[in-house]
Amino acid sequence: FAYESDGSPTPGWPAIVRDQTSSSPPAIADIDNDTKADLVYLSGNGDVHVLSLISNIDDSQNSGWATFLHDERHTGSYGSSSILPPAPNKPQAYDTPDDKGGSITISWGFPSGDINITNYIIFRSDKADGKYTIIGKTEKNNNIFIDNNAEIGITYWYMVRSSNGKNMSSNTNPVSAYSFNNFSPNAPVSVYINNIIIDGVIDIWWKMNEEPNTAGYKVYFGTKSQNYDKTFDAGLVNHYAVTALENNKEYFLCVTAYDKDGNESLKSMEVSAIPKDEDTDPPVFSSFYPNVVVENSEFYIRCEIKDESGIYDDNTTDKGQGVYLIWDVGELSEDSNIVGMSKLRSDEYVTDKRIPGQNLGSHIIYRIVAYDNDFDWGRLDDRTKGISELQKVEFTSAPKKIYNYPNPAPSGAYTDSTIFHYYIDSSSQVTINIYDISGNLVDSLNEQTTSSGHKETEWNISNIASGIYIYTIEIQPDSGNKQLYKSKLAILK
Fold first, then answer.
1. What is the chain's mean pLDDT, rounded?
2. What pLDDT is attached to residue 262?
3. All domains of the chain, ordered by start, with CATH?
């Protein structure tokens, strides 16, 4: 007979003739291993009939009916709650902790009441609605099973069924999980500081882990022990240079390792170091010129400035970090004159404008200021300021109307030039011709002056051969008679 779930007869079901009626008590079992219960009975004509369960008992375990598939003549309902053991309560699946991946743990709650359960059967599928196969079982007092055949990163679906040794419960709702590695690698060892001095830098080293899953290392540091406020990902290397640090301050550092699954180790032993500036020496000043100037003659001041990191000049004189000269008559003060200086050649610098001439017997004093170009990590204070020794320029009467200095040339700061000096009474056109001893013209210089006084014209001798030369200085005033002077100079290279 066929009945509804409330026990009432099902209308319209095919009539059952005698030779088709059951002649044996029905049994519940999973005959075809499809994880679904089957209703098995023997009919009067000797045929064995298998009807498959297609609905499950609900979680409350209160359903008294289960529906079975049927053929044209054999169909119906069966009160399964009195035959099937109750299903496990609320199963869960999750990654097994600290396993380095490859396993999933399945757990469930024991059914309530005094029941005769002997085992729990665990099924697995790669889809929620896929085919489930048995992967293991536990004893009745064990509600945890570990699937050790899970591939990392693959999602698996699980169901758990109770067994009383004869029949299995209905399926639980499928639960899913995937396995991942959550086991931390070992902390790095043999951590030390490379003692090389690099401005604002601490170079920390460690021994690389032997674990094949290691993906990289992180460096932690701060200015307090065990209190690290900054972190750098060093990558898969065995050392890391922490840069842009403040010199002469102690820093504390440690290292961790992390693997390809994102697990990070404990921190290594702590080390400490104090970064220092490798270049604290200021620029060196030398070859100051001139020391003596003809009275009332304007003049440039030159000197050589050297530093192993180079010389920096932002062209702001004393407003920033420029190269400049401070000068005055008598002594220097806060109100002394400031003149910028520019690079002339190689390490030689010259004032951007002439220093005013002074009367016979007077003198000026000056110092030159410059910064080195040790500019690590963008810090202005990393550059070292240099100040020259106090220098003096005296004023004297001209030895004669015209002369050149240095003679012989080159000499001192004048590595490739000599200076022609001459005196004019008024605005004039000045022509200087230089000849070799055979009378051939070697070079000609022209100068237009607009005021009276001692003047000078520089001659570049970098491409002039050694020898004795004769030069003439012709002074043609804007009004008046032309003056011609003649003298000799020597070039010794």
1. 84
2. 86
3. 1-84 (no CATH), 89-178 (2.60.40.10), 189-273 (2.60.40.10), 284-396 (2.60.40.10), 402-491 (2.60.40.2550)
